[in-house]
Amino acid sequence: MTVFEKIYEVVRQIPKGKVATYGRVAFLAGNPRWARVVGYALHVNPDPVGIPCYRVVNRFGETSPAFAFGGRDRQRELLEADGIRFLPDGRVDLSKDEWVGFGK
Fold first, then answer.
1. Where are the alpha helices (DSSP H) in the chain?
2. pLDDT in tens for each of the 104 residues of the chain?
3. Which residues are catalytic?
4. DSSP H or E segment with residue 20
5. For the domain with range 3-88, which CATH number is right: 1.10.10.410, 3.40.50.720, 1.10.10.10, 3.30.300.20?
6. 95 burial class (0-12, 13-18, 19+ CB within 10 angstroms)?
7. C-alpha to C-alpha distances, 75 to 3, 28, 48, 65, 78, nearest whole angstrom
């Protein structure tokens, strides 16, 4: 299995109504130093419907300004459709909405 395939397998597991950080996805994929690699993998996501890359945010709960599948506000729209509520400063409240791993 390639690094990207490991990353995609983790991202497929993020449940509706939750988000994961790039670092958490990297950790769960096998190497906590792969956070940037997670970003690269998600930017070239071959299956945006089956691999919900929009559920991945940065360590501050911020969405990507370079979201590859519809532009800057599209990621927020998709997260809101999943039931994610944003703080007044535009970030996801990771204390409430972060998914930390399989079965959690």
1. 3-12, 22-29, 35-43, 72-81, 94-97
2. 899 999 999 999 999 999 999 999 999 999 999 999 999 999 999 999 999 999 999 999 999 887 777 777 899 999 999 999 999 999 999 999 999 987 54
3. 53
4. strand 20-21
5. 1.10.10.10
6. exposed
7. 24, 22, 12, 9, 5
